[in-house]
Amino acid sequence: MQFCKTVLLWSCLVLVQRGSCQPYLRLRPSPSDNLPVKDIIEHPDPEHDPKEQDLDDRTLRKKLGSNFDPSYMSVVAPVQVNLSIQDPLHRLKVPGSLPSDLKKLDLSETPYGGRLKMGKKARRKFLQWLWAYTYCPVVYTWKDLGGRFWPRYIKEGNCFAEKSCSFPEGMYCKPVKSVTKTFLRWYCQGWSRQKYCTWIPIQYPIISECKCSC
Predict the structure, then answer these.
(1) Distance (Å, whole) CA 32 – CA 138
(2) pTM for the full model?
(3) Distance CA 45, CA 144 (A)
(4) Which residues lie closer than 8 Å to 173 by C-beta, 6 or more apart?
(5) CA distance to 9, 64, 73, 184, 190, per residue, from 50 (Å)
(6) What's the domain count of the chain?
(7) What does UniProt give as the signal peptide span (predicted)?
(8) DSSP E strands: which ranges in 48-171?
(9) d(CA 96, CA 84)
(10) Are residues 212 and 166 in contact, defined by beta-carbon separation less than 8 angstroms?
(11) What CA–CA distances, in Å, run from 2 to 8, 9, 76, 114?
């Protein structure tokens, strides 16, 4: 990781001196191997679906209790809105303060053994620029889990990066943190007249933070 940061830092310094370190990133989903959760292959038999009497909103809200989180779940189909900025020209508007690992970077030593003089103001602006172009926002979209989940709709996070998020290329936006939400899952066991179905609580992980890393 330290090697990646060093390569990223000095490549940007060289490009800044040449006046050619310009934003050109485009974005697409690039999830890890485990997140976001892959679509579940459902049994096509409608006999495995909950009936109308099994979908009473008041009963299900009571069963889910305090686990119902309207920020991440919805009973009805929400308006599909992209909840993160995807235009790379707006990446300079990064929320929050500089990460501690960026604040600790030593900008004085060059790869060739010389010393680089940089004032406090220039250092601050450079670090803010570096933070803006290595920052990886979580882009949320609403996903339909199907009628065998309640609530049916979940706000799922993705890490977006069509190209590398570093200069030179080699680092990518990857999930580093997730939150777990509890949903109800319609579960059937047995068969024919011996079949028994009920709502059971299940844990569903959601990406909550992405980071530019090797």
Answers:
(1) 13
(2) 0.66
(3) 19
(4) 30, 136, 159, 160, 161, 165, 210, 211, 212
(5) 55, 16, 19, 12, 15
(6) 1
(7) 1-21
(8) 73-74, 138-144, 149-150, 153-159
(9) 15
(10) yes
(11) 10, 10, 46, 20
Stretch 54-70: mean pLDDT:
96
Q: Which one of 21-30, 114-123, 185-194 scores highest in mean pLDDT?
A: 185-194
Token pair 């679906």: residue: 49
Across the range 45-50, mean pLDDT stands at 87
Phi, psi of 51 (to 5 degrees): -85, 170
Instruction: Indicate if the pLDDT at residue 17 is higher than 90.
Output: no
Read off the pLDDT of residues 144-158 as tens digits, 9 standing for 90 and up: 999 999 999 999 999
The number of residues in the chain equals 214
Q: Is residue 25 within 8 Å of residue 134, measured between CB atoms? A: no
Angle in degrees, CA 166, 10, 130, rounded to 5: 50
Output the average pLDDT for the chain: 75
Burial of 208 (0-12, 13-18, 19+ CB in 10 A): middle
Which residue segment(s) compose the domain that 80 sits in?
A: 2-213
CATH code of 205's domain:
2.10.90.10
Q: Which residue has the tokens 């940061």?
A: 5
